[in-house]
Design a protein that fits this description.
single chain; about 90 residues; alpha/beta; 5-stranded mixed β-sheet; two-stranded antiparallel ribbon; globular
């Protein structure tokens, strides 16, 4: 939130740069918050840290997901992290 109490929107590229993560997909995609992987929200960022979440990853409504490199191909918009939970 900014001082006026409004949500601050960042792009996926902004988040990648701030966290030192690799961005795959649309770096201009707007992110306004965070959400759970399932069901996800169309303007929010989620994370998936394990291969056992591949099914949820393929069906999430999240705008983008922080994932390890091994799961990067499972989603069109991703931030690649060695520890997705920590990055989240």
């Amino acid at each position: 939130m900014n001082p006026a109490g409004h949500a601050v929107a960042l792009t996926l590229g902004d988040i990648a740069e701030r966290l030192g993560l690799e961005c795959r997909g649309d770096a201009a995609r707007i992110i306004i918050g965070v959400c759970a992987l399932s069901p996800g929200q169309s303007d929010c960022l989620a994370f998936a840290g394990h291969a056992r979440l591949a099914d949820a990853l393929s069906s999430t409504a999240a705008a983008a997901v922080i994932v390890p490199a091994a799961l990067a191909e499972a989603t069109p918009h991703a931030l690649i992290a060695s520890n997705p939970q920590l990055a989240f």
